[in-house]
Amino acid sequence: MNAFANFHSAVVRPAILNPVRYGRMAWSSGTTCARKGFTVAIVLFGFLLMPGLAPNVALARGPDSLADLAAQVSDAVVNISATQTFDEKQALNKAPGGKGTPFDDMFEEFLRRHNQGGKGPMPPMRERKSNSLGSGFVIDPSGIIITNNHVIADANDITVIFDDGRKLKAEIVGKDPKVDVAVLRVKPDKPLKAVKFGDSTKVRVGDWVIAVGNPFGLGGTITAGIISARNRNIDSGPYDNYLQTDAAINKGNSGGPLFDMNGEVIGINTAILSPSGGSIGIGFATPAATVIPVIQQLEKYGETRRGWLGVRIQNVDDSIAESLNLGKLRGALVAGTDANGPAKVAGIKAGDVIVKFDGADVKEAHQLPKMVATAQVGKEVAIVIVRHGKELTKTVTLGRLEDSEKKKQVQTAAAAPDHAVPDTPVQKALGMAFAELNETSRLKFSIKGSVATGVVVTDVEPDSPAADKHIQAGEVIEEINQDPVKNPADITKKLQVLKKEGKKLALFLVANPQGEVRFVAVAVPQ
User: Fold this and answer.
1) What is the pLDDT of residue 61?
2) Global pTM?
3) Burial of residue 79, with CB atoms counted within 10 A of its CB: 0-12 exposed, 13-18 middle, 19 or more buried
4) pLDDT value at position 120?
5) Which residues are annotated as catalytic?
6) Which residues, 6+ apart, have CB-to-CB distance to 128 below 8 Å?
7) pLDDT of amino acid 119
């Protein structure tokens, strides 16, 4: 045994760790056949005997076969053919400008020119069809099928095509564009093969997965890969937390399932990142944990019922954290609250940082919308905020997001004045020129009436502290360090106070002309 151990350490291990060098040594020490045979034998022998190496090599190679898993799940995966039928006039009305614009007359004139040399009545409108192909999967043998909302969004005719060639018409049970999921129902003559959801919260980076779907309309196709990353935010919606995979996902895979090695659905294949439209190894699936609550609501109510807090939030960066005495990067910064919304009623204000929601830490701003959406409508939740460097707890009764969206009305800009009044800037600071917010400045910069108070930025110098933070002419400064400003002189005074106090940053609450607000920390020259 000692002799074998000595041989392993003196011969086998060096050959494995540096096969090229050791092979050259062997090459220079004997005949051609002996040299080659000796080198190969040592390498192969070493792979078999080196402790722990052989299992790692097999694991890196992946599963020996996925055939059994593919056979287990394939019958539950379907192709979705969605057709939208409309006439030429409908297509025109959907174009920019819509009905009753010059585009309408231009379209009719085009049709006349192609009918009897431009003479005679306009020809009848022809029916047009728009088709889309995607994927889906059965979750209930009675005929409940899941796919992406964007696969069937505007369709008025949906056909589900099964692996055995059967075709069934489908009706929409419910759909949700925010999470991009839709629930369909078909009426089969016998129970369908179904698959179940797994626990996507336990999926780890590096786990093997397979994607099944209908890429490029080819029909049932299986691809394999691993989970490349978790909790990806690709700015496609308010609840982004995708699973990223290198299993090939292409056009037509949308709505199809991403399976783990147990044959459970851990995600819905939804998006790809590709300059060409084909797979480059970066695909995204919506996690099962995100879609399951939505699917349950769609099945039960035909619509979603999400919690609503009534805040507009933004990320906290280093400069904002410093200006708010936050201590470290965390939470979601409240940029504004909706009038009569749950947050405003509970006393949450712009400038507060939400660091905990219903007992769970809010580490980044994009986490909060999902937390609120999955909470029960009408539930009382404890929200921990940081205000002026101190933590406070507010109790909020959540509203319903869909109700707030139905009630929300767009406010119109103030009426234009009959006469023009010069709006010469009266103050300058930090590379910005300011003017009062009045009827003239509202008209000049198309500022909506929802921007009630503040000071208008009329000019921004290039390479100035304000320009570095992307503040633009036409935006309105509403607050500095959470104190309201009503005229240009207020800004100058507040900046002078900050400079005397040795403050390096001024926290501006900035509203754009449409009324969307954000906090911006601007450096104060010393």
Assistant:
1) 66
2) 0.67
3) buried
4) 57
5) 150, 180, 254
6) 85, 86, 87, 88, 91
7) 55
Burial of residue 393, with CB atoms counted within 10 A of its CB: 0-12 exposed, 13-18 middle, 19 or more buried: exposed
Residue 431 is which amino acid? G
pLDDT tens-digit map of 67-97: 999 999 999 999 999 988 765 555 545 544 4
Residue 388's H or E segment, with its range, is none
Distance CA 309, CA 66 (A): 46
- Token pair belonging to 362: 């809010």
Count helices and strands (H / E) in the chain.
17, 27
Query: What is d(CA 170, CA 144) in angstroms, rounded to the nearest whole number?
Result: 10
Q: What is the pLDDT of residue 140?
A: 97
Identify the CA nearest to 520 among candidates 508, 511, 505, 503.
508
Structural domains for the chain = 2-61 (no CATH), 70-304 (2.40.10.120), 307-407 (2.30.42.10), 427-523 (2.30.42.10)
pLDDT number for residue 101: 45
C-alpha–C-alpha distance, residues 238 and 176, integer Å: 12
Structure tokens at 494: 């507040």
* b/e per residue 486-497 (b: at least 16 CB within 10 A): ebbebbbebbee
Q: Which two tokens stand for residue 22?
A: 């050791």
The whole-number pLDDT of residue 2 equals: 53
Cβ proximity of 394 and 346 under 8 Å: yes
Structure tokens at 217: 């309309």
| Spans of the chain below 70 pLDDT | 1-61, 86-130, 408-426, 526
